[in-house]
Specification:
- The chain contains 4 helices and no strands.
- With 84 residues, the chain is mainly α.
- It is 33% helix and 0% strand.
- It has a domain of 45 residues: 30s Ribosomal Protein S18, CATH 4.10.640.
């Protein structure tokens, strides 16, 4: 991998990674409820693992609340623990 100071070959575009923003902070969602399965399922992919912060872009405070809500929803069978 190249360091930022090294020159790129001519004609190659520079790649900028877009800063991820927390969905809950932007939309000003204060409470993450375990009963809101539609919202929680956005952060649980097919394999039924909880999506990490670096991929979902959620801030640390909301990620902790999200984890708790997903675990509560799984315990009362609103979300699956695993896929078949």
């Amino acid at each position: 991998m190249r360091s930022p100071r090294e020159k790129r070959p001519p004609g190659q575009k520079q790649y900028y990674r877009r800063k991820k923003v927390c969905k809950f902070c932007v939309e000003r969602i204060d409470s993450i409820n375990y009963k809101d399965v539609k919202l929680l399922s956005q952060f649980v992919p097919e394999r039924a693992k909880i999506m990490p912060r670096r991929i979902s872009g959620v801030c640390s405070q909301h990620q902790r609340r999200l984890n708790d809500a997903i675990k509560k929803a799984r315990n009362i069978a609103l979300l699956p623990f695993a896929t078949e």
